[in-house]
């Protein structure tokens, strides 16, 4: 903890005269005063006691006087020296304060867990109540505005009523027409009715109705003025989130954190060598690897021996699995002319069980830019359309982002490639750097389509991952460097570099990271390496 000089000097001033202590004396109540201030108090009371100006307690003055405060006297003799701080002092001071705050929070959660939960929920509850009060206030203000407008209109109409001329004329019209209607009903109730006479009465009634409606309009204009008021209900559907909404940050990332200390000391644990050219692979299912070798998908044990395989008409472009029961394979399907010129191409998505038995298959006519999966869904980014098709693991299409979902937000994936989907967050990387050479990352909300954040990484990278603390892990295979960046700064739009480490990434063709933070590489298209992290 660093103490400021002005705080120390404030403790060396007499609380009565507010000047630096001169011969400071300790009173029985524990307070300290200058000897001059004590003498003034004695002269004021003209008695052998004084009243402490701080706590108002009365003290008898000893014949030899009050005891000198030796601590204050010695502190006054200390001459402060100017300390020259390095440029990193403020940064270090801030960091220490944050660490101290974290320690206090951990201690509070350990010693008073129930109070911490209640305090946190009370804070959210107060926010909800505050938003409710604000909304009620707005509604009441609008209600008063409408009622005032209605009252003014009502008063004007009553005044118009008092000014209507020739009321007797309208009363005469009312009586005559009432008698006419009564005669019509009497005739219709007779046992014998002449059809021609009824037709004549219908024509008379039509003329009568026209005259009455015209008189109603004239009367309305005299009563209500130029405009007849109506209340039109709002057509806007009340948003279910009008007060706000409860959102949940995913805390289920205990197995999805990158341990920086272990990464610093990482070393190659195992190399799985395969005799044929490895094009792609999926993260291991227990100790079994999924390798794309030529046009085949192979299941290989951790010594490189084949277990199962399946052959396709063309080379698979992507393979992944949901860690439960399904493997996804993406490959291209082409149609050729007799002269072997390609006339069309399509992409096939196939799912298999862990014994490589086919489960489902669909054909996509458009070119696929990228295929991303998580435990629930498959995300297919289409070329030249800014669309992302979302499927479940049964390959049933759920929706299209940019068409059935967020069609009004063309920026969702324009010039960006989808890289990861973690919970409600979609991470996308800009395909090209900006003028300063920075690579931008965009975070979108899958549920709302809102742009949550944008930040840039000041390095070239081809492989990009995000761990459970929103730290960016990037691989630069050209310079064989692994970098880990802190979670993005919301103010500066920059993610600070936590550390970088040189790895043996020469001729690296692929990179993936497991949920527990292990790194897997394809090297020289011949073997798979993965790094073991040791503390």
TrEMBL record:
SMART domains: RING (SM00184). The keyword Zinc applies. GO terms for molecular function: zinc ion binding. Gene3D superfamilies: Zinc/RING finger domain, C3HC4 (zinc finger) (3.30.40.10). The keyword Ribosomal protein does not apply. Residues 188-222 form a coiled coil. Residues 14-55 form the RING-type domain. InterPro entries: Znf_RING (IPR001841), Znf_RING/FYVE/PHD (IPR013083). Keywords: Coiled coil, Metal-binding, Zinc, Zinc-finger. This is RING-type domain-containing protein.
């Amino acid at each position: 903890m660093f103490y400021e000089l002005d705080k120390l000097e404030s403790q060396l001033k007499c609380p009565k005269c507010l000047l630096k202590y001169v011969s400071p004396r300790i009173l029985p109540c524990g307070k300290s005063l200058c000897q001059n201030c004590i003498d003034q108090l004695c002269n004021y009371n003209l008695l052998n006691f004084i009243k402490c100006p701080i706590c108002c307690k009365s003290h008898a003055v000893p014949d030899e006087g009050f005891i000198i405060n030796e601590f204050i006297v010695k502190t006054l003799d200390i001459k402060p020296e100017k300390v020259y701080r390095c440029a990193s002092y403020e940064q270090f001071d801030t960091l220490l304060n944050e660490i101290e705050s974290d320690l206090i929070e951990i201690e509070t959660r350990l010693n008073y867990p129930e109070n911490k939960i209640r305090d946190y929920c009370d804070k959210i509850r107060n926010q909800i109540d505050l938003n409710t009060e604000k909304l009620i206030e707005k509604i009441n203000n609008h209600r008063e505005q409408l009622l005032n407008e209605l009252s003014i209109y009502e008063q004007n109409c009553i005044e118009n009523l008092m000014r209507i001329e020739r009321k007797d004329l309208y009363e005469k019209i009312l009586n005559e027409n009432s008698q006419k209607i009564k005669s019509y009903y009497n005739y219709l109730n007779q046992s014998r009715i002449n059809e021609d006479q009824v037709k004549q009465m219908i024509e008379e009634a039509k003329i009568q109705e026209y005259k009455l409606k015209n008189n109603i309009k004239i009367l309305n204009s005299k009563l209500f003025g130029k405009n007849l008021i109506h209340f039109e209900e709002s057509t806007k559907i009340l948003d279910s989130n009008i007060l706000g909404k409860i959102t949940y940050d995913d805390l289920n990332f205990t197995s999805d954190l990158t341990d920086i200390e272990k990464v610093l000391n990482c070393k190659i644990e195992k190399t799985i060598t395969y005799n044929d050219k490895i094009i792609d692979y999926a993260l291991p299912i227990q100790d079994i690897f999924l390798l794309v070798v030529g046009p085949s998908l192979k299941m290989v044990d951790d010594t490189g021996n084949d277990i199962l395989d399946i052959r396709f008409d063309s080379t698979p472009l992507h393979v992944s699995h949901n860690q439960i029961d399904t493997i996804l394979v993406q490959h291209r399907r082409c149609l050729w002319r007799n002269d072997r010129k390609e006339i069309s191409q399509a992409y096939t998505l196939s799912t298999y069980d862990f014994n490589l038995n086919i489960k489902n298959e669909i054909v996509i006519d458009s070119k696929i830019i990228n295929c991303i999966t998580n435990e629930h869904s498959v995300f297919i980014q289409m070329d030249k359309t800014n669309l992302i098709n979302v499927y479940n693991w049964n390959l049933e299409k759920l929706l299209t982002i940019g068409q059935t979902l967020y069609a009004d937000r063309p920026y969702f994936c324009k010039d960006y490639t989808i890289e990861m989907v973690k919970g409600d967050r979609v991470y996308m990387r800009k395909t090209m750097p900006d003028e300063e050479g920075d690579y931008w990352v965009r975070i979108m909300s899958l549920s709302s389509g809102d742009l949550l954040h944008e930040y840039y990484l000041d390095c070239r990278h081809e492989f990009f991952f995000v761990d459970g603390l929103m730290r960016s892990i990037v691989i630069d295979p050209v310079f064989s460097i692994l970098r880990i960046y802190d979670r993005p700064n919301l103010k500066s739009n920059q993610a600070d570099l936590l550390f970088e480490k040189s790895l043996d990434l020469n001729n690296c063709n692929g990179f993936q990271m497991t949920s527990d933070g292990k790194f897997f590489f394809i090297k020289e298209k011949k073997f798979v390496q993965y790094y073991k992290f040791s503390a």
